Every structure is written in C-alpha cells, then in structure tokens.
Amino acid sequence: MAGPLAGLKVVELAHIMAGPVAGLMLADMGADVVKVEKLPGGDDTRRMVPPRVGSESAAYLMMNRNKRGIALDLKHAGGKAVLTRLVAGADVLIENYRMGTLDRLGFGFEAVHALNPRLVYCSLSGFGRTGPYAARGGFDLVAQGMSGLMSITGEGPGRAPVKVGAPVSDITAGILAAMGILAALQARATTGRGQLVDTSLFEAGIVHTFWQSAIALATGTAPGPLGSAHPLNAPYQAFATADGWVNVGAANQAAWLRLVDALDAPELSADPRFTTNAARMENLPALVAALDPHFRRRTTADWLDRFEKAGMPAGPVLDINAMLADPQTRARGMVVETEHPLLGRVATLGAPVKFSDTQAAVLRAAPLLGQHTREVLAEIGYAAAEIDALVSAGAVAAA
Questions:
Q1: Which helix (H) or strand (E) holds 399?
Q2: What is the pLDDT of residues 191-223, one digit of tens each?
Q3: Closest among 138, 107, 137, 133 to 121, alpha carbons compared
Q4: What do you get for the CA distance between the two ends of the chain, in Å?
C-alpha cells in the first residue's frame, strides 16, 4: 500500500537534525523527499563520527533514511538553476539555514512563493523568524537551557543543571514542523495557496514545560528539578530494586491504593502524610524514604509481575540496547532494516505512526552523497548531456 502522503513532493534543504527530522516524518508517511546536500561536503552529520557503519556515519544513516539525495553547489549558477526547477514543481520546501542565508542565495520565502505560490515553505531555526533573537543560530543545548528545560531536569535543588539526554528540542522542532506542514497543506486544499510555516528549537523546548509552566503561571514560583519524580502527582518516579530500577505511576488515588497493596504496606495508606495526592506531594521526601526499603526487597522482575497482577502502571528502566531488543519495540516495527548500496542491510528505527489503510514504512537507506542526482535531474527535465555538463562544472555531484 502507498503511504498517506504518496504523491507529495518535498525538497529538504536542511542539515543536522531538526529539518531532517521533519523530512524523515513526511518520508515515512510516503512523501517523496529529495534531500539537497551542500557542496562541498554534504550534510554535517556525515562527519559526526564515531561511530561509523562501514564507511558511513551512523548519525547520518539514522536521520536520512527514506529520502533520495542530490548534491548542489548553490553558489554556482548551475546549482541554483537546478534548485529553482526543483522547487517550481514541489509541494513543500523544508529549510533550517541561518536567518537570511537562503534570501541571499535567492531562495527565501518571498522569492520561492513568487515562483511557486502553491508551495508550503517550512523554516526551522533556533528562535523563530521574529523577535529579538531571530538572527541567532540555534543549538539544542542552548534551546534546552533557554526554554527552561535544564532548570527542571536533574536530581534535585542545588545540583548542576542537566540537559535531557536526547536532543529533544531538535527532534520536537522537526515533529512540530511536520505537523505545521500538514496543516498548511490542508489549508492549501481550500485556498489553493501555500504559506510560510515557522517554528523553532526554542518553542519546541517550551512546549515540554506544560506542567511546570502551569505551576509557574498559577503560583509565580518556578519549579525545580525532581529527578524522575512528577511535579503534580506522587508517587510517580523510579525506585531502586534489589537488582535495578523500576518506574511506578501511581498518578491517582486508586493507583496509590493498588501500589500500597502490592507492596504489602497497609500502614502507608493510613499515614496522614500520604492519604491524598496533595499530602503526598507536600511530604514527597518522606514518602520516598518510606517506599524505598520496600522496593529494595525484590528484584525488578518480581515487582513487575506483582504490579501487572495488581493493575498497577509500572515498567523497567531500560538501556538503549534493552529497549531495541524489547518485544514491544519489535512488535511495533520500531527496528527495521534497509538495503544500502555500499553497506548491505542496515538497521534503523521504524515509522512511529501506524495507519489502518495507508502504510507508513521505511523503504530506503540514507543516500550516498549525490546518489540520486542524475535520477532527480532527469525527472525535472535535464538531458543526460546537460547533467554531465553540470557535474563537470562542479554545480552538482553525482555518486
């Protein structure tokens, strides 16, 4: 079956992570995403090594599966002509260059919109296209700090600030961009016109603070880090067991009572410090201290068995290898293999959204630099001799 976005033509003029995440999401759902890499060198993730898979960067392979790849020198007239022809027939353009870069090259929103009024132009940046920080470059670490995420991540008050382990502002910005693109395409179905979609790493970080911002807006007090605990419910965190860690989610009163029963600790349910969620939050250090010795009596597997029988939400704390091997990960198709022209079968992550009637799938390995240049240029009307001339001139590269 074709994916739900089959027939959609996307030009990904992006590098590193946020823009490529947006392209990846659309490609997983069936869009034809043509990744345009810069010359010389290509996407900077090609140099984010180690590790490598054979000769290729593992980071590049992960972020660019399911895409076709061409390589252009946008400072060369021939490279600009190729991109002009490419975007003229596209539905979507994704870019995450620094503010003003594409305008100087002649591919800013106004110029491209004049060329192709139906095109949805998605711009990802560090801080968005408006405001006092619009001209600043964007990095996940900086966005995590300025969005407040690093102030609420870590073991507790007085400790050094900690970033979220994954580059969540980069990844979330890509997902928000894909969502915005789809919304703009829906609007185009009514108006017949494309528009500018503008999001940023900064805003992507902010949206992860819904609970903490709710607290701050209501009380005027900025919440701090709580380790694995929750700012509004308790107990909702990781506890050490006899051989590891287990997460428990007693997010309501019924779950709290099930937890106490599974722990064989009826005295905790009668303790006035813990009778309601508000009381448990007020006495969180005492609650953790009371629960800790109970959890240490059994192994993680023992607790998970007991909690499952009790209907208590819980799960182990897995490392990445254990997560990749987990039967639920495999059952959901979240580890798949692609066929790479140099490396053979290469494992990657699968499509995270499933459809009943239109299949999302990972079908292509990440392209070599310029792997599909000749193919794509032929599709937009270049003759073989013209392509050879562009290659010879250095305007494009073909693998």
A1: none
A2: 999 999 999 999 999 999 999 999 999 999 999
A3: 107
A4: 30
Residues 41/65, Cβ–Cβ less than 8 Å:
no
The whole-model pTM stands at 0.94
78 in Cβ contact with 390 (< 8 Å): yes
E strands along the chain, which residues?
9-13, 32-38, 52-53, 56-57, 68-72, 92-95, 120-125, 196-200, 236-240, 245-249, 314-316, 335-340, 344-349, 396-397
From the options 3.40.50.620, 3.30.1540.10, 3.40.50.11540, 3.40.50.300, give the CATH code of 245-316.
3.30.1540.10
Domain regions of the chain by residue span: 9-207+326-397, 245-316
pLDDT in tens, 302-352: 999 999 999 999 999 999 999 999 999 999 999 999 999 999 999 999 999
d(CA 321, CA 161): 27
DSSP assignment, residue 365?
A: P
The CATH H-level (homologous superfamily) assignment of domain 9-207+326-397 is: Crotonobetainyl-coa:carnitine coa-transferase; domain 1 (3.40.50.10540)
Query: Using H for helix, E for strand and C for coil, what is the string for 191-251?
Result: HCCCCEEEEEHHHHHHHHHHHHHHHHHHHCCCCCCCCCCCCCCCCEEEEECCCCEEEEECC
Backbone angles phi, psi at 122, to 5 degrees: -105, 120
| Active site residues per annotation | 170
Fold: same for 9-207+326-397 and 245-316: no
- Exposed e or buried b per residue across 350-360, where buried means at least 16 C-beta atoms within 10 angstroms of its C-beta: bbeeeeeeebb
d(CA 59, CA 52): 8
What does the block give as tokens for 210? 């819904």
**Strand order, beta sheet including 314-316:** 236-240, 245-249, 314-316
Read off the DSSP letter of residue 265.
-
